[in-house]
């Protein structure tokens, strides 16, 4: 029995026949497909062909500007957004896109003006409030940023970025309960957001909720197993609940992923110290100091460890160094604490 040959038919679905009957919309549709596929050069070519047929299409200038922006061709993107707005001064998306471009160029005055204009045109356009909130946050005008993020969320309850950014401001203001609420919303909408789990874990840790923090940092590790920071954060949380052995295991992993992780060495040393493994503790403090010679905490911690094994001379030398560094760095509280430790040792 012989097999019949199979005829392969190649369909050129992304091209149009050369014909004067081709409409701008057909080129626009092709451009949109290319843009969606991430083929920005081809998208630009098709949008340009549409504009050759009709140079008064504001939406096409806007779309081509978006493609140029994706290719980091900022000048061309700006020119297209300008033309889109010239053709249609009430084009909200063009104002918003130009504002975002201004943000990338750190032209915050221009960005703010465009977001203001977009909101004037359409007070129910959530992306404009989100964008303006980002401008305010960048300029550390956090009250205004919170107002805009909240308004964006009133208009669109599924705006993930607004929850995240508002949560970060709450976190920065040490309003950890509200930060947790917002990061939880991010996770609800995007269950694989390692950043949201990390941020929520940090908020839990700052509230002393270390068991909850461990759960969140474990999720970060599940999503991103190469995150040295996640292992460090989870190790720190285990340390805080006196689970020193598990903390050491996490610090080991953090160091394996980032051999220059100074704080991981310092905190692993503290875990060893609390387990009375003073030799390993001193070895880790040595590594931390070698990597960061101005790390006052490491000198102080090593000094205390030396005192525990009766090495008084080395202890005083380290503690004096720590006290001097804290004073130089403007940390008067820790400077005073170290001086008190030195005094308690009879020096």
């Amino acid at each position: 029995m012989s097999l019949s040959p199979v005829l392969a038919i190649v369909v050129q679905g992304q091209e149009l026949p050369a014909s004067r009957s081709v409409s701008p919309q057909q080129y626009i549709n092709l451009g949109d497909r290319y843009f969606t596929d991430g083929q920005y050069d081809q998208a630009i070519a098709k949008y340009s062909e549409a504009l050759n047929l009709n140079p008064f299409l504001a939406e096409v200038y806007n779309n081509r500007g978006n493609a140029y922006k994706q290719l980091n061709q900022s000048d061309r993107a700006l020119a297209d957004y300008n033309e889109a707005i010239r053709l249609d001064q009430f084009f909200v998306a063009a104002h918003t896109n130009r504002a975002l471009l201004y943000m990338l160029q750190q032209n915050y005055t221009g960005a703010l003006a465009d977001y203001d204009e977009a909101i004037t045109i359409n007070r129910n356009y959530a992306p404009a409030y989100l964008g303006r909130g980002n401008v305010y946050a960048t300029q550390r005008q956090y009250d205004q940023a919170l107002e805009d993020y909240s308004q964006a969320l009133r208009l669109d309850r599924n705006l993930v970025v607004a929850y995240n950014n508002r949560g970060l401001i709450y976190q920065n203001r040490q309003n950890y309960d509200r930060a947790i609420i917002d990061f939880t919303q991010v996770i609800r909408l995007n269950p694989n957001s390692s950043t949201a789990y990390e941020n929520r874990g940090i908020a839990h840790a700052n509230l002393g909720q270390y068991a909850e923090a461990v759960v969140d940092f474990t999720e970060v590790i599940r999503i991103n197993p190469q995150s040295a920071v996640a292992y460090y954060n989870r190790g720190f949380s285990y340390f805080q609940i006196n689970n020193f052995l598990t903390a050491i295991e996490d610090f080991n992993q953090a160091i394996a992923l980032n051999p220059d992780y100074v704080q991981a060495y310092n905190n692993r040393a503290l875990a060893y110290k609390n387990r009375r493994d003073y030799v390993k503790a001193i070895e880790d403090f040595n590594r931390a100091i070698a990597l960061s010679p101005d790390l006052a905490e490491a000198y102080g911690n090593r000094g205390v460890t030396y005192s525990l094994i009766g090495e008084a001379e080395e202890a005083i030398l380290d503690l004096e160094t720590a006290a001097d560094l804290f004073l130089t760095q403007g940390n008067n509280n820790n400077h005073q604490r170290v001086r008190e430790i030195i005094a308690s040792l009879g020096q």
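DSSP finds 19 helices and no strands in the chain. The mean pLDDT is 94.
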